[in-house]
Amino acid sequence: MTSPIRIAVQLQPQHADYAQIRDAVARAEDAGVDIIFNWDHFFPLSGDADGKHFECWTMLAAWAEQTSRVQIGALVTCNGYRNPELLADMARTVDHISGGRLILGIGAGWFEKDYNDFGYEFGTPGTRIAGLGDSLPRIKARWAKSNPLPTREIPVLIGGGGERKTLRLVAEHADIWHGFGSVGTLTRKSAILDEHCAAVGRDPGLIERSGAVTAPPAEVADDLVAAGATLFTIGVNGPDYDLSLVRAWTAWRDNR
């Protein structure tokens, strides 16, 4: 299966009033993006570490009501912040509010300040990845016995690049893999993902490949497409949420 070219924007929920975030959502949908992501943190990741910041999932519920066309999701939810059954029910509810437009983006977590200040055990990379592996089947099992069921099979996006463990979880559970790094890194890790898919008996073509972009499409798009990427995400920071690069990418998509 060849995935269509899609453009996403990650509206980073930091250093802005919510009215500014809401306006950015409206402008992003009008600009023609396919997906609007936020992220799942409790503090800013850049700038003033104690600056303005808002929570992920309550925001996604608001976006589900505000928008009508785009898919929405977190890039990515931290597995360790919520019981997996609770997270499954939150996702199912936002899926219904949005009319079937939610992507469940999830990862093992990494930002230690979030854990320490909110009373979660940080653990080690190994324990966090193991926790993600435990949660994914529990999430799907909860969906299967919910009433009402999700509107459809909610697509799962896994973010991360660990070659032995994380990519194995992608092969087993994900519909979208979001990787990080250069074109060369994406190419190499995508091939490793294909190997994991073969090991678990899954068609690698069923997993969409995603990457973050910070440059205009004229500089990087052809190489990324050649590496197998079809979903391109532009991160945009508050309070202004400048969408000029986003519009360049949607224009490139439309001209293909």
TrEMBL record:
GO biological process terms held by the UniProt record: alkanesulfonate catabolic process
Naturally occurring in which organism (per UniProt): Pengzhenrongella sicca
Domain Luciferase-like: 4-216
Domain of life: Bacteria
UniProt keyword list: Flavoprotein, FMN, Monooxygenase, Oxidoreductase
Protein name: LLM class F420-dependent oxidoreductase
Coiled-coil ranges per UniProt: none
Signal peptide: none
GO molecular function, one term: alkanesulfonate monooxygenase activity
Pfam families listed in its UniProt record: Bac_luciferase
InterPro entries in UniProt: F420_MSMEG2906, Luciferase-like_dom, Luciferase-like_sf, SsuD_RutA_monooxygenase
